[in-house]
Amino acid sequence: MPSVAIVGAGIAGLSCADILAKEGWQVTLFDKGRRAGGRMASRRIETAQGEASFDFGAQYFTVRDPGFAADVARWADAGLAMRWPEARADAWIGVPSMSVVVREMASRHDVRFAHHVSGLAREGSQWRLLGEGMPSDKFDAAVLALPAEQAAPILTLHDFELARTALFARSQPCWTGMFAFDAPLPHHANTVRNHGILAWAARDSAKPGRKGPESWVVQATPQWSAANLEQQPEAIAPLLLAALGEATGAPALVPLAHSVHRWRYALSAGTGLGCLWNGTQSIGACGDWLLGPRVECAWVSGRMLGQRMIGAAREAA
Q1: What are phi and psi of 24, to 5 degrees?
Q2: CA geometry: angle at 297 spanning 293 and 301, to 5°?
Q3: Domain range 3-34+113-170+269-316, CATH architecture
Q4: Fold designation for 41-100+171-268
């Protein structure tokens, strides 16, 4: 069976890996992070009142595609996913964190974390990964499950048409703040939408299956994030904290602990193409930027690419 290297172990890359592995392909995933998560990442911070947990990427996901619904049902049966109606009627979350569902997917595959792939080299009819510490293994196919901005420079050297699609698929950034407090904030709801510079804020500690001190995730608007993209995190933190205090009626907030994360490629517009595949060179791309800015879109894009690769291999056989 063919071997494939998938660069990126987020939900798109793992969805692609799932369908290829079921067909018997030899799948290896490479990710620059230390653990599975991608845009479904979670973070834990120690505080004087215990460990605080934050979903600082995607806040929830929705379910429309039948195939994705089957996966979500399996996660729910295993206690890894629950509904969160406070966000919206059809919202789901991972339990006890958003990243748990991605970790479950990754557990079924050979995933090499802390591997930063800087490029691909074509050697004969196979691919070799470039980057410090990369293995010398060669693969029959290569998949880029990366944001468009990271996929484009790699694709440019091998397929300009695919690269051009990625170059035009721009993402919007998002500054995200994580704040833990010693007491609940005096806000009547557990979410805030579109208030000043805030696109979203959520009392993460109130999500189903959570525990720990009062914890909030704060996400700035794309416009504000873009205007302040190159600021340092220590300059952004007090601005997000002040915005949270204004939105919740709690001025002069003093957190037990906090952290700030800059998502350079947070929200994709979606090209509607589903996935990209060059059958001649056996290189492709998948991700939410090829469908739309939802977790489910990333999952569907990965599955679409896997199906396309399997179909192409069968035709060539």
Answers
A1: 100, 5
A2: 125
A3: 3-Layer(bba) Sandwich (3.50)
A4: Polyamine Oxidase; Chain A, domain 2 (3.90.660)
Nearest CA to 266 out of 288, 285, 291 is that of 288
> In Å, what is the CA distance from 190 to each residue of 44, 71, 77, 102, 212?
20, 27, 26, 25, 15
What does the H/E/C string look like for the chain?
CCEEEEECCCHHHHHHHHHHHHCCCEEEEECCCCCCCHHHCEEEEEECCEEEEEECCCCCECCCCHHHHHHHHHHHHCCCEEECCCCCCCCEEECCCCHHHHHHHHCCCEEECCCCCCEEEEECCEEEEECCCCCCCEECEEEECCCHHHHHHHHHCCCHHHHHHHHCCCEEEEEEEEEEECCCCCCCCCEEEEECCEEEEEEHHHCCCCCCCEEEEEEECHHHHHHCCCCCHHHHHHHHHHHHHHHHCCCCCCCCEEEEEEEEEEEECCCCCCCEEECCCCEEECCHHHCCCCHHHHHHHHHHHHHHHHHHHHHHC
The domains of the chain are located at 3-34+113-170+269-316, 41-100+171-268
Q: Quote the pTM value.
A: 0.95
Beta bridge partners of 43: 54
CA dihedral for 53, 58, 60, 61, sign (positive or negative): negative
Buried b (16+ CB within 10 A) or exposed e, 9-26: bbbbbbbbbbbbbeeebe
Handedness of CA 32, 34, 36, 41 (dihedral sign): negative
Asked if residue 276 lies in contact with residue 295, where contact means CB atoms within 8 angstroms, the answer is: no
Mean pLDDT by 10 residues, the chain (317 residues): 96 98 98 86 94 96 97 97 95 96 96 95 96 92 97 95 93 97 95 97 96 97 98 98 96 95 91 95 97 95 98 89
